[in-house]
Design a protein that fits this description.
The chain is built from 9 helices and 8 strands. It is an alpha/beta fold and 224 residues long. Helix 1 packs across helix 9, helix 2 packs across helix 4 and helix 4 runs parallel beside helix 8. The protein binds cytidine-5'-diphosphate (CDP).
């Protein structure tokens, strides 16, 4: 069977990771969450007291950062210099830092190399901001997921609330707006719908409805 790749891009809270994970399970292929890699770079900066907005300092220490993606019981784990940081990278502070370090071209080039290597020789669902436009421009299927800012903020708020994270809806909404702005306006590989991507506005849609819509786009011989 031929390998195939599905690229899922879109802004924060559009449902990319939930959808991509379920889709990958359904198709029995691997899921790659590229945001986790930018988050790990941000965590490194925070832990080492490097200002994540200080581009020059970050460029200088890039060689000290080793990021690996491994799979444990089908779940992606992110290793930062050998340590599993998959849970630690889910804070709001790390979200802000990830969006800042992701504007640095050198950081992106390093992460993209890792992403393309993972995609080599295996079928995958990969989610991020620039997968369909830059990382895997030849992906077989490209999806661009969107939703209103209100809905995205609500989803993220619920997710964090369930994890016991204390934050306000207003704070989340502002953070999402700021990240949308950062991600869409950066010079190198910004968040953008690829010309050949199919856009799905998930506002008011359930996860099952979105999955169903995407599955219909996938040729049957890809996964039978
Ligand atoms: O899940 P959520 O959308 O909140 O964030 P994420 O996918 O974990 O990504 C965190 C940040 O990393 C984003 O705000 C982007 O700035 C950056 N990112 C990126 O620039 N390119 C990617 N392929 C993935 C994430």
């Amino acid at each position: 069977m031929k390998h195939f790749s599905i690229a899922i891009d879109g802004p924060a809270g559009a449902g990319k990771s939930t959808i991509a994970k379920l889709l990958a399970n359904k198709l029995k292929i691997i899921y790659v969450d590229t945001g986790a890699m930018y988050r790990a770079v941000a965590l490194y900066c925070i832990n080492n007291e490097i200002n994540y907005n200080d581009k020059e300092s970050i460029k200088n220490i890039l060689d000290d950062i080793d990021i690996k993606i491994v799979y444990k019981e089908n779940n992606q784990r992110v290793l930062l210099n050998g340590k599993d940081v998959s849970n630690e990278i889910r804070t709001n502070e790390v979200s802000r830092g990830a969006s800042a370090v992701a504007t640095i071209k050198e950081v992106r080039i390093k992460m993209v190399e890792l992403q393309r290597n993972i995609a080599k020789g295996t079928s995958i669902v990969m989610d991020g901001r620039d997968i369909g436009t830059y990382v895997l421009p030849n992906a077989d299927i490209k999806i661009f997921l969107t939703a209103s800012v209100e809905e995205r903020a609500n989803r993220r708020y619920k997710e964090l609330f369930q994890k016991g994270v204390n934050c306000s809806l207003e704070e989340i909404k502002n953070e999402i707006k700021q990240r949308d702005k950062n991600d869409s306006s950066r010079e190198f590989a910004p968040l953008k719908k690829a010309k050949d991507a199919i856009e799905i506005d998930t506002t008011g849609m359930t996860v099952e409805e979105v999955i169903e819509k995407i599955v219909k786009l996938i040729p049957k011989d890809f996964y039978n």
